[in-house]
Amino acid sequence: MFIRVSFLLIGMSLCSGIQGDDNLQSMLVGTVMRKIKSRTWKKQRYFKLQEDCMTIWYKSKKAGNTHSTFSVGDVEAIREGHQSEVLLSIADEFPADRCFTLVFRGRRGNLDLVAESAEEAQSWIKGMKKLIENLENMGEREKLDQWIGDWFKKADKNNDGRMNFKEVQDLLKMMNVDMNEHHAHRLFTMADKSQSGSLEDDEFVLFYKMLTQREDVLRVFQVYTADGQKLSQSDLEDFLREEQLEGGDIQKHAKQLIERYEPSDTAKVLNAMTFDGFLMYLGSAEGSIFNPQRRGVFQDMGQPLSHYFISSSHNTYLMEDQLRGQSSVEGYIRALNRGCRCVEVDCWDGANGEPIVYHGHTLTSKILFKDVVTAVGNYAFKVSEYPVILSIENHCSVEQQRVMAQHLNHILGDKLLKSTLDGKAPIGLPSPEDLKGKILVKAKKIGGLEETFNGMVEDSLTGEVSDEDEAAEIDENNLHRESVRRRLKSKQRLSKELSDCVVYCKSVHFSSFKHSRIHSKFYEVVSFTESKARKHLREAGESKFVHHNSRQLTRVYPTGFRTDSSNFNPQEMWNAGCQIVALNFQTAGDGMDLNDGLFSQNGRCGYVLKPDFMKEAEKRFDPETPQQRDHYQPIILTIQVISGQQLPKVNIKEGSIVDPLVRVEIHGVPMDQAKQETRYIENNGFNPVWYDTLRFTIHTPELAMVRFVVEDYDKTSKNDFVGQYTLPLSCMQQGYRHIHLLSKDGTSIPPSSLFVHIRFTELE
């Protein structure tokens, strides 16, 4: 390994400038603050930054020795003032300048805090921001040093800065290593240079280095090194050309890699790369499986909206299930911060003339429509500048619809798209580029866009207000009471004010693909539950669905029977060209892994361009028969799963060690759906080695997603999930690559990774 510095000094990079930083000094001393969970739950806690500048420690005054901690790395953002529902609820009690919110990564709840004074609040806000910035600027080597230091602290039970053999044995179990006592003692003795019977910091680094010897990478290095010690620039160029299959200016790239990743100044002077540098490169973003050139926005953003897959959320207001779950504006903030570009707002009449948002006829809690609109206005364009669609499911009276329209206009102002872009009757959908910074409303509309321009719109319209009431679907299956049936059949009027907020996304009923082809307008959007969409796929054929979606937007959402907020597999709907495939963002699992994977490209902007054969109406692509399309060229994907590194422990039982296996899943057109597994490795989650080769034939590479899943094998029950990584096939780099694994929540779990070799070959 490439550790050079005592890891007891690791914190120095994070605490750099601490002597002159009053905020960090104050955090190290500690502060009493109130932790707020609700209007009635407000408890004092003592918060303190640990010496490593990586961990926040806190405890109750009454709780004796029990305390809690969290890592600075777990915090995604700090919000100042009353910027959460909880803090807004106590705004009359505590001023905004004493309040702040720590937002955690993944699906973990926020931490709402009130300091004793505005000055103390600012100390923590500025100090936390500084620590997060320092952490984000850490290099790969410092991150690894940090990780090792964390393990040392966990294992050094008596806090004497040394580790005896018993502590080392306990540490190995914690790190997922099953090693016989004799071998462990041999490594311990070799590392104990001072012969003191315990390992100090540098000795522990040496021990870790021996423990993590990467024989798999060394084998590759040895093939290309001429002298066995280093790669000359020419050796590195050969590796990049022959193994990584890189094009372009390889000489220039090899020079850059040496400059960027080689830790030895001596080697740099020789324009060479040592094994440590080679390992650093392969562990970096450039050595990862995801092609860095596809990370930023690289696609043409000037095509009609119907030509893109759009990251979309269902029941965005829910944080949990659909029967009793909490409704929260936090759901909107989290979805938008993940790049979601279409959010759902389920509106009902509320008290005092104010419309509310919740899952109708259930026990889910209620939030104000105006609070949702405010959150969308504030967060719509933080991570992507491309348009956001508000999909409104409207159950309100005409009076409260007028209030909804007022809130949309007043709160969103110029961000709300109120008319066509050039003020003329359009002939097609605008592009994401045209609509940058705009919020579009998808809902019912009185008449069409054409009538808007010739002034033939009535004041109100009698008709169904909402297509998407999930109770309607349940009702069809005779699972609802007669009263609900009557409610659904009753007509509601639509207010002109709300209708006028709808421009390019008019919600309409769907009759048939034939009817749509002849009568429908480009700005009309149909919505289907997943079961209705499947029915149309079966009965009308997939090519008709693809054709429909080449010129119009379609929204597909989970069936109402999914009361647990589970998700369907979105791939089936993407195969048919459906753009707005709405998922429960609050629920982790395969569906969200695929969604996160598809939208991890193109700057995570929430829009991904569909393949050409799905955009052109005359092409008639059928996912069932991909071999019939123009330019059909299947490929063979060969994946050699070589090894794993530092896989997380999934079973907290002491002494339990992972038996890992890797499953590779292909999601795409029906002919491409496949999965294969490696064998499992017994009792080694630390550095398992497979060298197992998996082969797949891919008929439509443009639509294929590849999901790598690591599981803990169990012969008596279901395997436990360890980690996963999902990406589009089109974003994969060939050659020797690391896959940096993600948790069930989609957050990174460094330094857990897989080492693989990837090759595409055309099928003759």
From TrEMBL:
The lineage of its organism: Eukaryota, Metazoa, Chordata, Craniata, Vertebrata. GO terms for molecular function: calcium ion binding; phosphatidylinositol phospholipase C activity; phosphatidylinositol-4,5-bisphosphate phospholipase C activity. It comes from Amphiprion ocellaris. It comes from the Eukaryota. Its EC number is 3.1.4.11. Keywords: Calcium, Cytoplasm, Endoplasmic reticulum, Hydrolase, Lipid degradation, Lipid metabolism, Membrane, Metal-binding, Nucleus, Repeat, Signal, Transducer. The keyword Membrane applies. Coiled coil: none annotated. It catalyses: a 1,2-diacyl-sn-glycero-3-phospho-(1D-myo-inositol) + H2O = 1D-myo-inositol 1-phosphate + a 1,2-diacyl-sn-glycerol + H(+); a 1,2-diacyl-sn-glycero-3-phospho-(1D-myo-inositol-4,5-bisphosphate) + H2O = 1D-myo-inositol 1,4,5-trisphosphate + a 1,2-diacyl-sn-glycerol + H(+). The keyword Signal applies. Residues 498-615 form the PI-PLC Y-box domain. SUPFAM superfamilies: C2 domain (Calcium/lipid-binding domain, CaLB), EF-hand, PH domain-like, PLC-like phosphodiesterases. It holds the Pfam family PI-PLC-Y. This is Phosphoinositide phospholipase C. Residues 1-20 form the signal peptide. Residues 615-743 form the C2 domain.
